[in-house]
Design a protein that fits this description.
Elements (H helix, E strand, L loop, with lengths): L1 E12 L9 E2 L7 H12 L6 H10 E9 L2 E12 L10 H5 L4 E22 L1 H4 L9 H9 L21 E4 L3 H5 L3 H6 L5 H10 L4 H15 L8 E6 L5 E10 L15 E11 L4 E15 L2 H8 L5 H4 L1
Parallel strand pairs: 2-5
Antiparallel strand pairs: 1-5, 1-6, 3-5, 3-8, 4-5, 7-8, 8-10, 9-10
Length: 316
């Protein structure tokens, strides 16, 4: 099966979940709603185009691999609201604030700092030949993510991307194979994009300092050296290779993730992140799966990451 694989990385991100009262929490993986919103923005679909958004949601499946869930950042807010009264209706935010009496409520919003995820998207077989009004192809989604119509962000508008998504279409026999694609392979494709070629053109007209800065930028775009990951420094396999912890989230059948029999430590639970109407902000429930595992990284990469950690003396 063909998968569209991309890398999500930003200084801060927020994957909204069920919110009660003034708290706006975030989960530690990209939600279905957030990924669909990212694709919708790239395609230039407006919130008012409900049918397009529904067809997009019906057409694709989503899975993710967490390399680093980041650390929690809590943002404190105060919000002005009008007092409630019988027979009083406000149709705009401006009208609310023009009320004779305005109160203040407290709110907090959670973000994730320095998180790193790889996301895989596929077309659901049952919808490829359906009678949907709007049809989508992986190549179309790939081009849209490279050259988006609207600004892309991870969860909230205050969470812009740090680096390009580097979307690539790959063929894999199962989901894990698609999600395990090397990040270096994804980033290497960035050097072939027009954006990097334009940078190279500018470098011909620049001095040595500018040339060095441009080379550093290109190196950052095509290397995972500075990207976060979760390494267990005490975990070493039989081949004396350090291990890092990764977590997979996916929808559909449990067996779709694995090449052979699925492990016993797969958790299945309900998520309220499948959008039905973005204009009215309505969501429905879906079933998702989660599996956490350790995967080996070669000693060269492990040493490279250790040397860039603040507490490197403690782990060497």
């Amino acid at each position: 099966m063909d998968y569209l694989v991309m890398r999500l990385y930003a200084p801060i991100s927020s994957w909204g979940t069920l919110a009660v009262g003034e708290d706006r929490p975030t989960v530690n993986y990209p939600t279905r709603s957030a990924v669909l919103g990212l694709l919708g923005a790239a395609l230039g679909i407006k919130r008012s185009e409900a049918q397009k958004l529904r067809d997009l949601a019906s057409s694709i499946g989503i899975a993710s691999k967490t390399y680093s869930e980041g650390t929690i950042l809590r943002d404190y807010h105060t919000i002005q609201t009008p007092t409630s009264g019988k027979g009083v209706n406000f149709f705009t935010r401006k009208q609310e604030l023009q009320s004779a009496k305005v109160e203040t409520i407290l709110s907090s919003r959670d973000y994730r700092e320095d998180g790193l995820w790889v996301v895989a998207i596929w077309l659901k077989p049952e919808f490829e030949n359906s009678n949907l009004e709007y049809k989508f192809e992986l190549q179309q989604l790939q081009q849209a993510l490279k050259y988006p119509k609207f600004t892309l962000y991870l969860g909230r508008k205050s969470c812009p991307l740090s680096l390009p998504l580097s979307p690539q279409i790959i063929t894999a026999s199962h989901l894990k194979m698609a999600l395990d694609v090397s990040i270096n392979e994804l980033l290497a494709e960035s050097s072939k994009d027009k954006s990097v070629k334009n940078i190279n053109k500018l470098s011909d007209k620049s001095n040595r300092v500018a040339q060095w800065q441009i080379n550093e930028l290109i190196d950052t775009m095509v290397s995972d050296r500075y990207l976060p990951t979760t390494i267990d420094y005490k975990a070493i396999n039989e081949q004396n290779t350090r291990l890092r912890q990764v977590t997979y989230h996916w929808e559909g059948e449990i067996e779709s993730m694995f090449e052979s029999a699925s492990p016993v430590n797969v958790f299945t639970h309900n998520h309220w992140d499948d959008p039905t109407d973005r204009k009215q902000w309505q969501f429905t429930q879906r079933i998702g799966h989660q599996w956490t595992a350790y995967e080996p990284i070669d000693n060269k990469e492990a040493k490279k990451i250790i040397l860039n950690t603040p507490d490197k003396e403690a782990v060497l």
